[in-house]
Amino acid sequence: MIKIKHFVLIPAILLLISGCIKREPAVVTTNNSNSNTIPIAQTYPMPTQPTPYPTQPTPVVINTQPQYIPQRLPYLRGAYASNYKLKQIINNLASQYHLDKYELNAIFSTVNRDSVALDKYGVFKTRKPTISKASLPGSWSKYRAQFVNPTHIQKGVAFWRENAKWLNMAAYKYGVDPAYIVGILGVETNFGGFTGKHSVLDALTTLALEYKKRSKFFTSELENYILLIKEQKVPPQSIKGSYAGAFGLAQFMPSSFREYAVDLNGDGHTNLFDPADAIGSIANYFRSKGKWNPRIPVAMMTFYNKKRFYGIPTGFKTSYSQRYLYNLGMRPSSNFYGYKGPVSLIKLSKYDRDELWWGTPNFRAITRYNPKDYYAMAVHQLGQAIKKAVYGR
């Protein structure tokens, strides 16, 4: 015998099956406000056409970089598809370093010719002999004003305070005064304000193939770049830098990166776009390549009783005893922190007179970054100005 309540249940079941009664989906909410976190369940409008679902669920990856999957091509394509020298470079990389030739073909097929890099180096210009700009009156005053100015000093102070932990760590580990690390960052990239927009792969490939005067150098850097992206497992076109192929806050060339870059913050990745690793890498570069000596000063201004100096050769490559320079009428502006060793004689051309400085082997260490007297002196003076502003002395 069927009870009355069964007559109530049977129509309800039939209505549910026919779709007349709508079943609301369960929605699970979350209080996690992190935009990178996907809620456990959300409601989305149903697609107009049925979408086939994979047999296996797709994993959700949060806060990680997508894995780079190398491509392979049997033939070279792109801007330099028919370039014989590039094919030689590919063959050399494949044979010497046991790299996949088809993968190299795919990498170099993405290259675009960097005409700006060629213009910067004046590759196709007929150059006329000109006098050195550094010898013109006032040339140092103009150069110095680009870097040793209130804006750069203010930015340097902020950078120092924000990264004091890493600067102190680098100073302790490598024995390099933080002032010179900050000075390099200020002159090179304005403390990371501008690290370059050129594709490093495009610039190096273009210069290696078309800049005949320095083809050997840029070919070596291009090969180091290919090894770098393989070691770091990054896409070939992902690194942007200068027209010369330098990149990061420290503006390292690929060969310098592979030899001197360090993971100062210990996160398992060496990243020159990270202030910590850039700081540590510069310090390691100074110590390892520049032979930095923490027990001696860098440079000191001297007094000379004439407005212009033409007596003997000047520049960071020169080496004189201090006694010899004393005999020429030069007098140091201080006791040089007790340093008595040989010095280089640096001449800086101001509008009204020449300024003479003595540089120690540490001054020459700075020129390993860029072999120019004005560059090294700008790093020295900017770094000291920032240090004085930080500590008030």
What report would you give on this structure?
By secondary structure, this protein is α+β, with helices and mostly antiparallel strands. The chain has a domain at 84-113 and 196-239: Bacterial muramidase (Helicase, Ruva Protein, domain 3), CATH 1.10.8.350. It has helices at 4-18, 84-97, 101-108, 115-120, 139-147, 150-162, 164-174, 178-189, 200-210, 215-232, 254-260, 275-288, 322-327, 361-367, 373-391, and strands spanning 198-199, 240-241, 299-303, 315-320, 331-332, 343-349, 354-359. A five-stranded antiparallel beta sheet has the order 4-6-7-3-5. Residues 1-64 have low confidence and may be disordered.
Please specify the SSE layout and strand pairing.
Blueprint (H helix, E strand, L loop, with lengths): L3 H15 L65 H14 L3 H8 L6 H6 L18 H9 L2 H13 L1 H11 L3 H12 L8 E2 H11 L4 H18 L7 E2 L12 H7 L14 H14 L10 E5 L11 E6 L1 H6 L3 E2 L10 E7 L4 E6 L1 H7 L5 H19 L2
